[in-house]
C-alpha cells in the first residue's frame, strides 16, 4: 500500500487506537479524514475540536487532512449524518470565511469532500459543483473528490457527471475516494459495503483524464472483506492510475 487514511475521530482520545496509529505512522504516509468538523453548521465552530485536531495533525504531519462539506448537527444534538447544505451565495460567503479562519488556525490547507445527498434544498441558488468550485477558490482550500458520491448523486438527482467534473478547478482537487454503493428501490445509497462498481471505475478514468492523477483511496466501512479483497481493489485503482485509460 502507498498510504493509509485514518478516520480522525477514532484517534483523538488516546488508548489503543493511538498506539496502532503511531505504529502505522512509522511505516506509511497518512491521510487524516474527519467526520466531526461540522463546517456547515449554523452555530459557531467548536474551538475545542479545532484544537484537538490541530494537536493530532502537528504530531503526525499527514500529507492531507480532510472533512466533509456538510453539517452534522445542532448545538447539543449530534445527528451522526453528513447532511447537505443549501448552496446559496450567503452560505458561500459564510463558509469561505470560516474555512479561511480554520486553515489559519491549523496552519495548513484542508480538503473538503462532496457528500452523498438524498434531498436538495429549495433555497439553493447554485448547483453543487459550482458551489464547490467557487468555495475552493474563495476559501483557498482543497477538494476531496468522492467519485462514488458523485455517481450516486448524479443517478439519484438526475444530473450529468461530466458537468460536475468539468466545473471543478483541477489544481484544487487533492485526492479521490472510491467506494461501492448499494442499490435500493428507486435510489442508490452510499454504503461503502461493496466493491467499486464498473460505472464508478469509468468515472475514475474520466476524472484522471480531465483532472489528473491524485492519491486515491478505497473506502470500505461495512461488511468488510478479507484484506486481499481490499488490496485487489487498491491495485485496480493503481493500474488505472498508471495507464490513465482514455475515456
Textual characterization of the structure:
This protein is an alpha/beta fold. The chain has one domain: Divalent-metal-dependent TIM barrel enzymes (TIM Barrel, Alpha-Beta Barrel). Helices cover 41% and strands 19% of the residues. Strand 6, helix 4 and strand 7 form a beta-alpha-beta unit. The protein is globular. The model has no long low-confidence stretch (mean pLDDT 93).
Descriptive keywords:
8 helices; two-stranded antiparallel sheet; 7-stranded parallel β-sheet; TIM Barrel; alpha/beta
Low-confidence stretches: none
Please tell me the CATH architecture by its name: Alpha-Beta Barrel
Strand numbers in spatial order across the main sheet? 1-2-3-6-7-8-11
Per CATH, what is the topology?
TIM Barrel
Radius of gyration, taken over Cα atoms and rounded to an integer in Å = 17 Å
CATH superfamily: Divalent-metal-dependent TIM barrel enzymes
Which range does the strand content fall in?
Answer: 15-25%
- CATH class (first level) name: Alpha Beta
**Termini, distance in Å?**
26 Å
Helical proportion, percent range: 40-55%
Q: Would you list the SSEs in sequence order as H and E?
A: EHEHEEEHEHEHHEEEHEH
Largest sheet: 7 strands, parallel
Summing up helix and strand content along with how strands pair, one would put the structural category as alpha/beta
Shape, per Cα inertia axes: globular
Q: What's the count of strands?
A: 11
Helix run count: 8
**Mean pLDDT value:** 93
The total number of structural domains is: 1
Amino acid at each position: 500500500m502507498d498510504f493509509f487514511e485514518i478516520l480522525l475521530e477514532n484517534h483523538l482520545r488516546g488508548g489503543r487506537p493511538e498506539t496502532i496509529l503511531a505504529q502505522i505512522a512509522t511505516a506509511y504516509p497518512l491521510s487524516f479524514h474527519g467526520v466531526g468538523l461540522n463546517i456547515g453548521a449554523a452555530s459557531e465552530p467548536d474551538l475545542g475540536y479545532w484544537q484537538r485536531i490541530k494537536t493530532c495533525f502537528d504530531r503526525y504531519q499527514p500529507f492531507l487532512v480532510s472533512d466533509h462539506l456538510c453539517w452534522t448537527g445542532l448545538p447539543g444534538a449530534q445527528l451522526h449524518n453528513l447532511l447537505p447544505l443549501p448552496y446559496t451565495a450567503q452560505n458561500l460567503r459564510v463558509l469561505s470565511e470560516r474555512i479561511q479562519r480554520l486553515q489559519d488556525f491549523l496552519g495548513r490547507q484542508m480538503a473538503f469532500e462532496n457528500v452523498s445527498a438524498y434531498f436538495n434544498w429549495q433555497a439553493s441558488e447554485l448547483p453543487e459543483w459550482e458551489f464547490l468550485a467557487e468555495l475552493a477558490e474563495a476559501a483557498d482550500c482543497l477538494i476531496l473528490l468522492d467519485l462514488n458520491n458523485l455517481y450516486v448523486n448524479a443517478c439519484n438527482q438526475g444530473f450529468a457527471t461530466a458537468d460536475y467534473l468539468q466545473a471543478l478547478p483541477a489544481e484544487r482537487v487533492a485526492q479521490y475516494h472510491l467506494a461501492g454503493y448499494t442499490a435500493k428501490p428507486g435510489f442508490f445509497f452510499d454504503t461503502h459495503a461493496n466493491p467499486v462498481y464498473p460505472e464508478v471505475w469509468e468515472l475514475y478514468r474520466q476524472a484522471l483524464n480531465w483532472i489528473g492523477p491524485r492519491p486515491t483511496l478505497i473506502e470500505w466501512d461495512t461488511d468488510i472483506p478479507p484484506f486481499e479483497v481490499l488490496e485487489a481493489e487498491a491495485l485496480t485503482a493503481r493500474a488505472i492510475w498508471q495507464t490513465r485509460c482514455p475515456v
